[in-house]
Design brief:
Structural class: alpha+beta
Largest sheet: 4 strands, antiparallel
Distance between the termini: 37 Å
Number of domains: 1
Radius of gyration: 13 Å
Helix content: 10-25%
Strand order of the largest sheet: 3-2-1-4
């Protein structure tokens, strides 16, 4: 199996919301690797720090990320550079 290049210029946050839109969580990924989850935008920089142990490639994570990227109705992609300007309330719009 040939793995395609990461389709983004840097890390992204995938916003996952429940169907009632009462809860949201950001799943952060870079280069097909899952970096962790955050409930608040302020938690994302810690996931992006280079001092943390970097995850290795995992085929299951790759497949999950591909599904998220292909389902924009359920998952919203957010450039991590924009997180400082967004508030959790805006996630539900």
């Amino acid at each position: 199996m040939r793995i395609p290049e990461w389709p983004h210029t840097g890390p992204i946050a995938i916003l996952e919301r429940d169907f009632a839109r009462t809860r949201a969580e950001l799943h952060v990924a870079r280069d097909w690797c899952y970096l962790g989850s955050a409930r608040e935008p302020s938690e994302v920089p810690a996931l992006l720090e280079h001092t943390a142990p970097r995850p290795t490639f995992d085929i299951d994570v790759f497949r999950l990320l591909q599904r998220c990227l292909q389902d924009p109705k359920r998952y919203r992609l957010i450039d991590t550079a924009r997180l400082s300007r967004e508030t959790p309330k805006e996630w539900y719009d």
